[in-house]
Amino acid sequence: MPAIYALYVINKSGGLIFNKEFVTIASNSLNDTLRLASIWHSLHAIAVQLAPAPGCTGIELLRADTFDLHCFQTLTGTKFLVVAEPDTPDVEALLRETVYDLYADYVLKNPFYEVEMPIRCELFDQNLFNTIAAVHRRWGLVH
């Protein structure tokens, strides 16, 4: 059954600036989450350099047996990562349109937010949670 497990936002320097778990599958510590962000940022940068095709922007999808990790990188270098159940539909659209729009509306337009710093915006959290809950309800998951 499709599900969105977690969302991570990594700044252009590779620092984790936001993380939220929606479905608890494994107990990841904060150190594990920071390590994931750092490793992903490095792998993404290496993939851009090693790509045989010109204009490659890095890794967009990592598939594993138990999860898919989707990445959307903005033009400013901010990366949005979603960990989802394998073969969950429309994750790219969710990242590019919905999550990024929420980020732009509630984080970037917040006069108290400093770019590249940790995201601590209650309206972003609430709207993100409501959006993911609505997606899970549409798929028949209890949230």
From TrEMBL:
Gene3D superfamilies associated with the record: 3.30.450.70
Residues annotated as transmembrane: none
Main location: endoplasmic reticulum
Superkingdom field: Eukaryota
Subcellular location per the Swiss-Prot or TrEMBL entry: Endoplasmic reticulum; Golgi apparatus, cis-Golgi network; Golgi apparatus
Record bears the keyword Transport: yes
Keyword set, alphabetical order: Endoplasmic reticulum, ER-Golgi transport, Golgi apparatus, Transport
Recorded GO CC terms: endoplasmic reticulum; Golgi apparatus; TRAPP complex
Subunit and partners: Part of the multisubunit transport protein particle (TRAPP) complex.
Similarity field: Belongs to the TRAPP small subunits family. TRAPPC4 subfamily.
Annotated protein name in UniProt: Trafficking protein particle complex subunit
Organism name: Elliptochloris bilobata
